[in-house]
Every structure is written in C-alpha cells, then in structure tokens.
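= Tokenised fold =
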Amino acid sequence: MKHLYTDADKFPQAAILIKGVAFKYTEIKKHYADPLNVCLKAMPLEYNSANKAPAKMIKEVLPAILANLDAENITTVIIADSAYFKAATRQSKAEPHYGYKMPCTVAGFEHMSVFLTGNYQGLFYNPRIQEKIDLSLSAIAGHLGGNYQQLGQNIIKKVSYVHTIADIGDALASLKQYPMLTCDVETYGLSIDKSRIATIGFAWNEHEGLVINLNHKIPRSDFDKQIVSNMLRDYFMTSNATHIYHNATFDIRCIIYDFFMKEVNDDFVSMVDALDVMYKKVHDTKLITYLATNNTAENKLSLKDNAFEFAGNYAQEDIKDITLISKEDLLEYNLVDCLSTWYVYNRYYDKMVDDSQLDIYKSIFIPSLKNITQMELTGMPMDMLTIENVSNDLELIMQHSTNKLLKEELVEDYLWLEQKKAFIKKNALLKTKFKPLDDFTSSLNTNSPLQLSQLLYGFLGLPVLDTTDTGQPATGKKTIIKLYNSIINEYDIKEDEL
C-alpha cells in the first residue's frame, strides 16, 4: 500500500489517513508530525471516480488499511476525513468528536484508538479549521504522552443546586456580592408560548456557580412557582450586577415572560418596565463572538461551538424536550452553559476590543437587543401589501435567474446528456418497442441537492469542498459561494467575466 513516513530514522508512533489530493510529505509533516514531534506513517484514502467515498467502499478498504498499520504495531490512528472516521468509530456524526479519543469499532482492530482531525487543505477556505486541527493534536499528544484527558473534565469546581424556597432566597442573596454574573435558562420549548423556564443558572467565574430548579420534576406540594417567580423578579430589579448571556434576547425574553408579566398576552406596562430592568447592565457573548470572529470565512456563533475546547461535547441530544432529561442532568447542563458563557466572554471580549469593535458593540448592537426583545414579546407591525409586492418581485427575479441559467451552454449540455441517459436506460428494458430520443425530456430543478450535485461534481467535475452530515457533497449556499470563489482564484477570473 502507498505510504510515507515523516521521519525515516524513527519508528512511527501514529498513523494519519488523509485524502489522496492532500497526500503530500511536506504539508503532512508541517501540519501534523512537527507539532506532535513524532514520526507519522501517512496513507492516502481511496475515493471513487466521482470523488466520493461510499460506505460500501470504505467498508471494503478500511480493514486492509488498519491491518497494514497493525503489522507495524501502530495503534493510534488519526483520520482527516469525516466519512472514514464515522466508519471507523460507528458514529453518526463526526463534528462533535474533534479533540476526543474514540475506540475503533472495526472487527479485529478494537485495540486501536481513533482521532478525528481537520484536513489542512481546508485552511485555504476557512482558517478556523486550524482550531479543529489544534484540538485533535492536543488530544493526540496527551494520549501518546499517557496523560490524555477528555474535554470538559473537571471544569466544575464549586456548585450549588437549589430546590427549596428557603434555599432560593439565600442563593439569590449570595449573588449580590458579584459585580458580573453569567446567566442562562433552560426552557420547555423555544417558541414564545412554550418557553416556560424550568431552571435558571448563574456563574461568577468559569468554574463556580449555582442553578435554581424552578419546576423541573419537583412535586407540586414542595413548590410554589409564583413565590419563586416573585423572588427572581425582585432579584433582577434590585441587582447591580452586569449579567452576561449568550443570545441575550432569548433568555431575557423568557425571564420577562415568566417573572414580570402578570397577564402574559396583555401586560405591556410590566413588559416595558421589565425591559428597562433587564437591559440595565448586559453583555451578550454571541454578539461579542460575532464581532471578534467576523471575517470572510464561516464563523459559528453557538455557545457549544465556541466553548467546545473548554467544555467538550456536553450537549444533550434530548435537550429539545427537557422532560426526557433527569433533574440532575438538566441542572448540570444549565451550569455548564453558564460556565461556558464565561469562557467565551474571556476568550473573545479583549479580541473584540483589540479589533476596534467595542464602539459598535456598545452603540448599536447592545441597544438593539431591547427593541428586538420587545418585538419578540409583542410582535411587529407589517404592511402586508408591501410584503406581497416584494414577494412577487423576488419571484420574478428568481425566475429570470433560473431561465438565464438554463440557457447556459454547459447546462444545456448537461440536460442533453441526462436526456440521452434516460433514453438509453428505457430502451434497454424494452424488448420489441423502441422509444425515440424526442420522447424524453430533462429539466434542472435548482432546489434539488441531488441534481445540483450531479451537475457541479459529476458533470462539471468541480472539487468537493464540503459534505453533508451523511457524507454527500454539499450544494448549499455557502458551498456554492466557496466554489465560486475557488474558480475565480484558481483561474484569476474577474467577476464581470463570469
């Protein structure tokens, strides 16, 4: 089998499996071997003529690759490809496993440890892929050095989980000593009429906090929700702390809806007063993250993504329905959200300031949150006639663009080829009759991922830059923009020439 060693004088301590187009000695050594300070055995991964790696093909070739490594007593396998990683570990998703050591599930090779890493070639399109590479290299280094620690371990140093009315009063009083607190709520739903609060958490640093259980799996006889709501409303009204949220409009909307509004659909006076209270001193780490990371590459803004290297993959799969989660698990989940919010704040606030984004953050972004929250609580007036007119205009623009696309020579060639394929396929099944070519038609549905994939990758032969969760070539808006930019850069084409 084709392979290379990053250091001919040393025994390989691990192996890296990577796409054939990225199978380059200098780059593999630079991005993986040198940072780890080890010798790596590199092997290229197989793909079919359409630049895909179907599950059937992976199942056939992967055991042979692992057997080759096993013959050299290599038990640490680094995979820079999501499809092969999922096959090697029997995971349905790859993204949550950067920075984790996973057991190999291929029969006969269960003694091997598998690590997912990013492909260095993706750095050209998105520099933040380096974060994924760094996460994996840190985990691999820990594993090889005998001190591997799973992400998110030991981040909770001090915590109080509060359940009784008496303890809630003491807990809220204790928060008054802190000038800044992160705050996060867990709710029974996301929509305005279902987002009733189950738990609310506070943290005063990255490792310490408390969570109040409002009504999650508490017997009614042990709890008076209205009393607790009043206590929390009074806390926010009297607190002088700056509260830090991630996506503040959601948490604050829920707090106002649950703790301040007496008649939730009609108590506008209480709502307006509550908006002044809740937005008196606020930070939003989602906005901070946006301003600190905004660039031409993709920037993910979720709390889980930006605190991943701190808290790991702590997301609950059943969080969309918290009734399926135990009281203990939900309280801890709420706390980790609060701790993670501190981590993101500490990670990005100074960067936002250094990038000269503080003024826009204070003068535009933060003030806008109050208006957004009010709109979410009361709605926003709409001119339906204007909306209908704009909708019609957009429909005409889309139709014009589609018609223009269909008249392109390459698209016409593709459609003719599809017509011919249908002609050949049908007549091959007929024994006596024969259908002429004119009986067959072909069309391009621009909303069909399958057709777009066939056109872009099968017919035009464009490189696969992104894949879906199922490992198929992506055809979404962001991917199309990437393909467009790659063509311009590769051939030095001016935009007006396209």
About this structure: The longest strand covers residues 180-187.
